[in-house]
Structures are given as structure tokens and as C-alpha cells.
Amino acid sequence: MDFQAFLITFREVLEALMIVGIITTYLRKMDQQQYNKWVWTGVAGAVISSLGVALLFQVVLTGFAAMSSQHYMRISIMLISSVLLTQMVLWMADSSKEIAGKTQDKINKIVTAGSVLGMVVHAYLVVLREGVETVFFFAAISHGDISQAIQSKGALLGVIAACVLAWVIFRTTVRVPLKTFFTVTGFLIMMMAAGLLVQGIGAMQDYGFIGSLNKHVYDISTILPEHPIDEAHLRRIGIEPLISGQIGIFLMAMFGYSSSPSFEEIVAYIGYFAVLIWWIRFRKGNKGQEKNEIAAAASENKKDSVSLQEKVQIAK
């Protein structure tokens, strides 16, 4: 769970800091630094609100556990988190290059209107969105124990790494290849989303909510058990696993690894990547076509303008 928590906090905190950094940098260029204190006021309020959301969410999860209905919440969180992570991947594929321009446009409108409240609200909502997503993802990877994820070393290291990278980007002349960063983290998040989807399907099958055409397509638990408990069980019956169960539990938590997956889990895992990659390429293709059409239209307008000027010259 530590690596998952690291990736989540690193990604979410960095995105929030990037947007806040763009806001404060743009305000400095506009010579409007007096708004900075209101930006950080919004950030502080969002952090406090996010902790409140985490507390509220934990109370709700505890209530479901008391009613012996925690498996419903657990499955729901897994599936919804998979959808949210997928949406994040799509957002990074579509909008990561345009984030600075969009943020500057919003800030320019707020400064022009002279709205201090608007600046606070904008910063607050930007950071709060990342905070709420973090809480939800922590609930998914910790199976409902959000405090465990928040207190993990991975979460703390993720925050520290994000702060350091954000400082490097905005305070030094070192060029950080953000395109590579978004590509790598996007791939890891995609793997995590696929893993949560598969775990959700497996949990539904375990609880008998859905059936299976083949419950165990193969079984490689003797090679790589998916949990140290499985490893200990194998050793009790005289079988020494080839790879430690510690690696198995990491792969299960991070990528949805299963030593004996069902037919539906395999289809869902492969299908997820096939559909998502096709959709990303499809959307990029459409965007490329739109750009070409806009360029062609601009070229035609330019030709028409030139032709009109020639006709005017001839008339003269």
C-alpha cells in the first residue's frame, strides 16, 4: 500500500501545487502579488476541508462495517475509484498541455473583476478537488481504513517529493520534462485503475453477486503467491514458493495481480487496456483532424483576403 499511497499523494499534491504555482507566478507577472495571500488562504481552507472529508468518510465506512455491509461499500469504492482514475488518465492525455493557459485565463478574469472572494474560491476548489480524490483513492487502497493510508510512509514521501519537484519547477532554471512525468504516472495510474476494476469484479464473485464461466483459469500460487498468508500456507504443506508473497501482495495492491484469476477478471483486465488505449488514440485523432480543418479554413480565408485585395488593386 505504501507505493500506492506514494503515487496518489505525489500525483494529486503535485497537480494542486502546479496550478497554485501557475496562479502565483501569473499574479507576479501581472504585478498583482497582493492576491497571493488570498490564494494561500483558499489552499489552507481546502486542506482543512479535505481532512474533514476524510474524517466524515471514515465515519461512514465505520457505520457500514457496524451494519456488516462493508463489502458493499468496499466494492463500490473500488469500482468508482477505477472510474475516477481512468478519468484522470484521460484528462492528462487531453489537457495537460493546456493547463497553464486555462488557469491564466481564469485568473485574468478574476483580477480584472477585482474579486478577492473569487481568488479564494478558485484556489480553494482547485485544491479541494485533489484532496477529495485523494481521500477516495485512499479508501480504495486501504479497504476502508483511510487513516492507515494517510499515516503511511508512502503518503508522507509522496507529499515531500511533490513539494520538492514543484519547487524545482518554479524556483530554479532546471527544465523538468513534464511530458515524461505525465506519461509515466499516467501509465502507473492506468495500471492501478485496471487493478481496482479487477479486484472489484473478484470481490463481487467472492460474495456471490455475480457468477463465473471459469472461477480459476490457472493457478500459479506455487510460483508467486498473492499474499504472505498464502506463502505460509504453502510452506506448511511442504511447498516452497519461487517468489515471496511480499512481492505478490505488492503486485496485487498496485496492479490487481491474482495468482488464480477468473475468466471474467482476465477479460476485464485485457479489455480495460484495449478500450482505454483505443479511446485515447481516437480522441487524439479527432483533435488532430479538428486542428487540420481549422488550419485549412484559416488558409482559405487568407486566400480569399488576398484575392479581394488584388481585385481592389485592379479596380484602382
UniProtKB/TrEMBL annotation:
The chain crosses the membrane at residues 6-27, 39-66, 72-93, 155-174, 180-198, 266-282. The keyword Phosphoprotein does not apply. Its main location: membrane. It is found in: Membrane. Keywords: Membrane, Transmembrane, Transmembrane helix. It is a multi-pass membrane protein. PANTHER family: IRON TRANSPORTER FTH1 (PTHR31632), PLASMA MEMBRANE IRON PERMEASE (PTHR31632:SF2). Belongs to the oxidase-dependent Fe transporter (OFeT) (TC 9.A.10.1) family. This is High-affinity iron transporter.
